[in-house]
Automatic annotation (TrEMBL), chain A:
Enzyme class name: translocase
Protein name: Ion-translocating oxidoreductase complex subunit G
Keyword Protease part of the UniProt annotation: no
Matching NCBIfam families: PRK01908.1, rnfG
EC number: 7.-.-.-
Function per UniProt: Part of a membrane-bound complex that couples electron transfer with translocation of ions across the membrane.
One biological process term in Gene Ontology: electron transport chain
Cofactor(s) of this protein: FMN
Lineage: Bacteria, Pseudomonadati, Pseudomonadota, Gammaproteobacteria, Thiotrichales
FMN-binding domain boundaries: 103-196
FMN phosphoryl threonine: residues carrying this PTM: 179
Domain of life: Bacteria
Topology in the lipid bilayer: Single-pass membrane protein
Subunit relationships: The complex is composed of six subunits: RnfA, RnfB, RnfC, RnfD, RnfE and RnfG.
Automatic annotation (TrEMBL), chain B:
Transmembrane segments: 60-84, 96-115, 121-140, 152-173, 205-227
EC number, UniProt record: 7.-.-.-
PANTHER family linked: ELECTRON TRANSPORT COMPLEX PROTEIN RNFE (PTHR30586), ION-TRANSLOCATING OXIDOREDUCTASE COMPLEX SUBUNIT E (PTHR30586:SF0)
Protein family according to the UniProt entry: Belongs to the NqrDE/RnfAE family.
Source organism phylogeny: Bacteria, Pseudomonadati, Pseudomonadota, Gammaproteobacteria, Thiotrichales
Main function: Part of a membrane-bound complex that couples electron transfer with translocation of ions across the membrane.
Coiled-coil intervals: none
One of the GO BP terms on file: electron transport chain
InterPro entries (UniProt xref): NqrDE/RnfAE (IPR003667), RnfE (IPR010968)
Name of this chain's protein: Ion-translocating oxidoreductase complex subunit E
Naturally occurring in which organism (per UniProt): Cocleimonas flava
Length: 224, 237
């Protein structure tokens, strides 16, 4: 009995030691890479934002001109950041970072740029998802140009009843082997456009008031 | 090199007995290499790691991506497990392997994310899948824990390479049958020079969706295993 106990103690102690070493290694790696990863992500965010709003179409610090919409306010699934592009203090594009859970597996997050003047889509880019490789991932711009089909569309063009995938009787193509993914994106885009129609002006007003300097900001784009 | 019969190449987790675990000569290296690539191929013979194998091989490039990630992880984990093999008590070896593999995968994931964000955005989805690959723990238990570092490293690399070749074959066959293309998305991994690699052998071919879906993976996999058995039989006679 005593021998067994000794063996257990030894085994437990050495496992604890190995666990400790692993934790140290992983957390060291984490702290060494954390800064760089955040930097990369910020770069990728700006790159993604610039695909929707080319960086000559605005003159503010876009990645940091962000307000968060509370999910309780409007039926978004989670807190939704909106990046606000302005040119000479005048609102140009609002880029919503929309998340939908109606995809095939897990959350799909995409950037949806909405033009301030006519509330049409300036661009749509998927930033993160867990859809099946080879099927659902055709919504990535680098795999197919499906997302470009949204450009210039608005709630009047096509009519709001047509804002569905073809399988549901709407105007938007699904892609081979996947209906659920495109449906999730089309539906989330429709509801975001509806939200924007109602609230766009208020969002920009809130933002411009909270950053009094943004009107006078110089047009240097050193941070970009 | 005489071929073993199909029955001998069944799942053989004790393929190397401890006394032989330190020999490092030409014929042993050859044996480890051939085991990984053919006789004890993880994909076709051991049938380990089927989950990621079947899940991602919808096209060739995905297969290659998972393959590269597996080679790296398997080689590193084999080296570490062989290095520590005399200090790890028998009773705790399985949780120890899990610990080592999970740590390695996490560290590779983080480092790649920091150093090569472009490659990470392509291979990133495959790296967490490796944790679910029982090939890694299988080689740790069956080989690395009983062999010298050199042997374990070679075994890890060759097993990984054997696995990669199966992934590539499976991915290529499924891509050709399923979408009628080859090397689609190659530019994601190799950059813009790879844009021209894209091949569409049959102009009018619409694609056969079943091949891309999971059932197609099982079917193609079954044919690949059958083909290997036929070749083995031919070699024997």
């Amino acid at each position: 009995m005593k021998q067994h106990f000794e063996a257990m103690k030894k085994a437990g102690a050495s496992l604890a030691l190995f666990a400790f070493i692993s934790v140290v290694l992983v957390s060291t790696t984490n702290s060494l890479t954390k800064h760089k990863i955040e930097e990369n992500q910020a770069k990728m965010l700006l790159k993604a934002l610039n695909q929707i709003a080319p960086n000559n179409s605005y003159d503010n610090d876009l990645a940091n001109s962000k307000i968060i919409i509370d999910p309780a306010e409007n039926g978004f699934i989670r807190e939704t950041p909106v990046y606000l592009a302005t040119l000479k203090g005048k609102p140009v594009t609002a880029i919503f970072e929309v998340t939908t859970l109606k995809g095939y597996s897990g959350a799909i997050t995409f950037l949806l740029g909405i033009n301030v003047d006519d509330k049409s889509v300036d661009g749509l880019r998927v930033v993160s998802h867990h859809e099946t490789p080879g099927l659902g991932d055709k919504m990535e711009i680098r795999k197919s140009d499906w997302v470009l089909g949204f450009d210039g569309k608005s709630l009047g063009n096509p009519d709001i009843e047509q804002w569905h995938v073809k399988k549901d009787g709407g105007d938007f193509d699904q892609f081979t082997g996947a209906t659920i993914t495109p449906r999730a994106i089309v539906n989330a885009t429709r509801s975001t456009l509806l939200y924007a129609q109602e609230n766009m002006d208020r969002i920009f007003m809130t933002h411009l008031n909270s950053v009094p300097n943004s009107n006078k900001q110089s047009k240097t784009k050193g941070t970009q | 090199m005489s071929a073993t019969s199909p029955t001998d190449t069944g799942i053989d987790l004790d393929d190397v007995s401890p006394p032989k675990g330190t020999v490092w000569n030409k014929s042993e290296r050859r044996k480890i290499t051939m085991d990984g690539l053919w006789h004890n191929n993880p994909g076709l013979v051991q049938l380990l790691g089927l989950c990621p194998l079947l899940a991602v091989t919808g096209n060739l490039i995905n297969g290659l991506g998972l393959g590269i990630a597996t080679i790296i992880t398997l080689t590193v984990s084999n080296i570490i497990i062989a290095f520590t093999r005399n200090w790890v008590r028998k009773e705790i070896r399985i949780p120890y392997y899990v610990l080592v593999i999970a740590s390695i995968v996490t560290m590779i994931d983080l480092s790649m994310n920091a150093i090569t964000p472009e490659l990470h955005s392509v291979l990133g989805i495959f790296i967490p899948l490796i944790v679910t690959n029982c090939l890694i723990i299988g080689r740790a238990e069956a080989f690395a824990s009983k062999n010298t570092i050199k042997r374990a490293a070679l075994d890890g690399f060759m097993m990984g390479l054997g696995f990669t070749l199966v992934l590539i074959a499976l991915g290529a066959i499924r891509e050709i049958i399923g979408s009628g293309t080859l090397f689609a998305d190659a530019s994601l991994m190799f950059g813009d020079i790879a844009k021209d690699w894209y091949i569409k052998p049959f102009e009018e071919y619409q694609g056969f969706l079943l091949a891309i879906l999971p059932p197609g993976a099982f079917l193609v996999m079954g044919f690949l295993i059958a083909m290997k058995n036929v070749v083995d039989k031919k070699l024997k006679s």
